[in-house]
Design a protein that fits this description.
CATH topology of the largest domain in chain A: Rossmann fold
Strand order of the largest sheet of chain A: 9-8-11-10-12-13-14
Helix content of chain A: 25-40%
CATH superfamily of the largest domain in chain A: Succinyl-CoA synthetase domains
CATH class of the largest domain in chain A: Alpha Beta
Structural class of chain A: alpha/beta
Shape of chain A: elongated
Number of domains of chain A: 2
Radius of gyration of chain A: 25 Å
Largest interface: A-B, 66 and 66 residues
Oligomer: homodimer
Chain lengths: 464, 464
């Protein structure tokens, strides 16, 4: 019998919170506050033997007093109580359960036994279980989350994260919410994966129209063959980006104590993933960098980058970086483009790609120079994407930046990334202006290119 | 006859500004404003044929009306006028000149001729010249700068930059001043190096007691043998860190149009630099990252890092990163340290290095857990340095952080680096608290380790 899909996890019409709590800050309360903050409008049934009312909701005293057929239960009980809770939920025809508690195989032998018992309960009843030891999940298209980390309203967007760590529905979501301007669709902390694993979630996200790009942090693949089969299909539709923890012997050893992940031969896996179009990255921070790059922008059609730089040193350095570690290059420009660049430059200056904009900016001002150069380069059929580095300082005067979102709209098939040198406060002002208007910015100059590189690599397998 | 040292460039008792200007924003005025903002208390002689007064100073009408023997002249005149200005300065016994103008070999053939004429003037008169086409230099121990980029007061510190780009006395200094909390000693934009080159400056900085670490951005070495000779000596005294632009064929080609640098065989150079103890880095941003790491902290005695992490995923990932790209490792801890970690942990949790602090922080609170774990690890003779990642959010409450500078003071031979996950505003608050108290922070978790790695590599050649 094929297992139930994950639709009810991500689109629940009704939810029971088993182990609801009246105490401020406790997971059993925060989880409900989080749902409210995100505008969840399904029915919420708090369950606690004390009964009474909680956040305006009637508290049900026991699972067997719940109405039958609730879509999803979030179980926030001590580990020992969870196997029975699963059976009780199943008896009330609740088919999907999030198990928040830790204290299982990740801790000790007693925990291993308990986890086995829990797995039996899930198996015998046929319910689908996320966890245990998960920090919950997020589904912004359903205004829903089972996270118990105090989050408030989570920004909506097309990025989905699947992680073998609770961080993406906790501290890292907070980081994204406070430091970045992109939003998420579905985020899942996998926990100990007694049932639902990365491949199940991958399968759901494969056809999820709300998910524009899928980011994985995994320390192991439970079903590598199936994962790769799905990848072959999905990577022609949307970027699939993976950071694999435990890629080295040291990392693999650490992964074993983190999520009891067994080391597989990383090189064999790497070849298969690569062939299936999965883009492997090697820094945690790139899970955010690449996401902020792809969230508001198209995936570039190829690796030909137009680069507008205020400094010859940056041009030299980025050339080195691209040659040494990235798959980007700087194509020659069409003669029309060269002509236009000549028109906006002081006499005797001959611009090419990368465009050293400094002479033109000195003569004509930043706004004119960047606007005209960027438009000329964006228009060029030899160019797939553009990166501009701007030097912003109070003393030189902040240029009006609204031409950049306008260019992004006009040349909507070519990503525009902005980076900075100069005054930090000005950079932050520019970020606060540009990012809500769909233009990603990168504090470190290399990062704009690193983010673009991830998407260029994703392009190879995309059909359109 | 040996050439004059650079002492008068870096410690001038009197300065002439040739081409001083009354107009706001013009280099000939900004350069004087910059000196004033930095508290320069030598004599300043503005020179302009119009005479009159400028910023309270009497304007001298011509170079030959200047008093004899002024230490340094800053010449801000059109390119064509500079050879004569050099001869006129020499006639007034001014032996050191900064030539700000561009328009020489970096532009066209006419510029090449002019540059040759200028070089002749310098040669024949024996004056020392920085430039032309330089953005000036900075010397905070003398409260002095010849930069014409509006900077205001430049923070003092032990970092010196020597760059084949004007950026470090312009936009990048502004970046350091606004985004970071470390200060600089001497910074030099080399320009077209008709006389003073990177090796001359290196020689000066070698024995400069104000310079704790030397950072180079170079696209070519004019005298590689001499440079390497000096390096052999200096790298036993202080870290010497180099980003070499043009390390790849593409970069080298770009360098040729940037600073007319000729490609040398980078691999041969690389071996010699490495043997001489110069630490080569490969990202522009690391010129700031490593500087902020070394500025307030000692160079670690070795590569054995204690790592206090709030997440198992970070431990896995950083293990991979260190193994794949860095030369750091995570040593076993002494049994006393393990005992102490056990005492501060919940029962059944067995901590080792890296220390997963999450369980202890959950039970005892962030402040207690981090303080006790960090102190236990710092005390351990197996550990040379420590990195802690903290998850800060308003909802979890900001811990008091003053224990961190206290630990830094107590264990002053072991660097402490802090990184973050969580709420951006909290991270910035922590940075604003910690960095002025001598503890560097890194927004991206990998960066703390990358910065430490640069210094571990510098350690190898250091005598003490």
């Amino acid at each position: 019998m094929p297992k139930r899909t994950l639709k009810r996890f991500f689109e629940p019409r009704s939810v029971a919170v088993i182990g609801a709590s009246a105490t401020a800050g406790r997971p059993g309360r925060v989880v409900i506050e989080n749902m409210r903050a995100n505008g969840y409008d399904g029915d919420i049934y708090p369950v606690n033997p004390r009964g009474g009312r909680l956040l305006g909701l009637k508290v049900v005293k026991a699972i067997d007093e719940l109405p039958r057929g609730i879509d999803l239960a979030i179980v926030i009980l001590p580990a020992q109580a969870t196997p029975q809770a699963v059976r009780d939920c199943a008896a009330r025809k609740i088919g999907s359960i999030v198990l928040v508690a830790g204290g299982f195989a990740e801790v000790d032998h007693a925990g291993e036994h308990l986890q086995a018992e829990l797995a039996r309960a899930a198996d015998e009843t046929g319910v689908r279980v996320l966890g245990p030891n998960t920090a919950g999940h997020i589904s912004t298209p359903a205004n829903f989350t089972s996270s118990f980390f105090p989050l408030g309203e989570i920004p909506r967007g097309g990025i989905s994260y699947v992680a073998q760590t609770g961080n993406f529905t906790g501290a890292m979501m907070k980081h994204i919410m406070s430091a970045e301007n992109y939003g998420v669709a579905r985020c899942i902390g996998l926990g100990n994966t007694i049932d639902i694993d990365e491949t199940d979630v991958f399968e759901f996200l494969a056809t999820d129209k709300h998910t524009k790009a899928i980011f994985f942090y995994l320390e192991s693949l439970r079903r590598p063959q199936r994962f790769i089969e799905i990848a072959k299909r999905v990577t022609s539709e949307k970027p699939v980006i993976l950071l694999k923890g435990g890629a080295t012997p040291e990392g693999a050893k650490a992964a074993q104590s983190h999520t009891a992940s067994m080391a597989s031969d990383d090189r064999i896996l790497d070849g298969a993933l690569n062939q299936a179009g999965v883009v492997r990255i090697d820094e945690f921070s790139h899970l955010f960098l690449a996401a902020k790059g792809v969230a508001p922008m198209p995936v570039p059609a190829g690796n030909r980058v137009g680069f507008v730089s205020p400094s010859g040193a940056f041009i030299v350095h980025i050339n080195d970086l691209c040659r040494q570690r990235l798959s980007l290059n700087f194509p020659d420009l069409k003669s029309e483009t060269m002509e236009r660049l000549k028109e906006i430059s002081p006499p005797f200056i001959r611009l090419s790609n990368p465009v050293d904009i400094f002479p033109s900016a000195t003569v004509h001002g930043m706004e004119f120079a960047y606007r005209e150069a960027m438009e000329a380069v964006l228009k060029d059929p030899n160019v797939d994407a553009i990166v501009s580095i701007m030097i912003l300082t109070r003393e030189l005067g902040m240029p009006a930046l609204d031409f950049i979102p306008k260019l992004a709209k006009k040349y909507r098939r070519k990503p525009i990334y902005i980076s900075f040198s100069g005054d930090q406060a000005c950079n932050e002002e520019a970020k606060a202006f540009l990012e809500p208007r769909g233009v990603p910015t990168f504090p470190l100059i290399e990062d704009a290119f690193k983010a673009l590189d991830v998407l260029v690599r994703a392009r190879k397998s995309l059909k359109k």
